[in-house]
Amino acid sequence: MRYLIPYHMSHEMLARKKYIFDSMHLWTRLIPYNEEFLCLEGFPVKELDIFFILGHNYKLKNFINQNLSDIYENTIVAITCDGSIDFSSINVIGRRFYIPYQNKVNNLAYLLNGSEYGFEFDLTESEIIFYNSKKDPNIISRLNSSFLQIH
To answer: In what order do the strands lie in the sheet with 50-54?
Structure first.
């Protein structure tokens, strides 16, 4: 499992590590990635076959399109507002691809004030639903019930 966080969100690093541990029962370590993202890598590395990436919609779409060959995980979760970006156009070559559920009125996933829900960072409703489903041992079932599957 890898969990990419943009450098401008690095202040959330410790809170995100706690979220990952609490929701997926994985320890993480910070590993170098690139000039745009920090990477929390699950330990053991191959425990979960999921690639999480946080950030702005168009940047994530471009990143995934340009770096798909470097993403070895079979499940990709792009945590972004989405909006007008069509993630379904990304050819993820038989992999599962998820985004947060969108508001039907304006096609956005709102960031909620995390402190109102016991978190130390702002997050989407899908992330809260995923966190609260942690008793289910099937990670794919949890993703299916908390995020919107595009592929």
So the answer is: 27-31, 37-43, 2-6, 50-54, 75-79, 96-100, 147-149
DSSP for residue 110: P
Kindly report, residue by residue over 40-62, the tens digit of the pLDDT: 999 887 789 999 999 999 999 99
Cα 25 to Cα 17, 99, 131, distances in angstroms: 10, 22, 11
Beta bridge partners of 75: 50, 96
In Å, how far are 16, 80, 102, 109, 111 from 22, measured between CA atoms? Answer: 10, 21, 25, 23, 20
**Could you tell me the CA-to-CA distances from 66 to 45, 89, 91 in Å, in that order?**
23, 13, 11
For 18, 27, 103, 125, 146, the CA distances from 109, given in Å and listed in that order, are 22, 28, 6, 8, 12
